[in-house]
Inverse folding.
């Protein structure tokens, strides 16, 4: 069986997700522990996950986006801290799951 590197998996994830830029058009690329919900829409993550799981043949029956969405974001002018009731979804979680051959966080 071919060994898959973390970088190969991460590159596949970032390739499947849409490009996001800041107001100054600087490319925003999440690091391995950034909550993906803070940058991407649920539909984008769902499409990426499906493509990733099928590309690497990962068992994903326990992967459920309702565990991670809806993600609360602060209001534009709010200083009140946001209290999340959903778990963060990160690139590290996808990398570890692909290497294990199944979704580990269900």
């Amino acid at each position: 069986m071919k060994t898959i590197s973390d970088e190969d998996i991460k590159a596949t994830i970032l390739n499947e997700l849409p490009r996001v830029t800041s107001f100054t058009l600087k490319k925003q690329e999440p690091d391995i522990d950034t909550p993906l919900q803070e940058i991407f829409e649920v539909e984008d993550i769902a499409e990426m996950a499906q493509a990733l799981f099928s590309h690497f043949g990962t068992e994903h029956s326990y992967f459920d986006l309702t565990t991670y969405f809806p993600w609360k974001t602060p209001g534009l002018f709010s200083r009140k801290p946001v209290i999340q009731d959903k778990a963060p979804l990160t690139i590290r979680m996808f990398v570890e799951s692909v290497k294990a051959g199944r979704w580990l966080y269900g």
Summary: The chain has a mean pLDDT of 94. The chain has three helices and two strands.
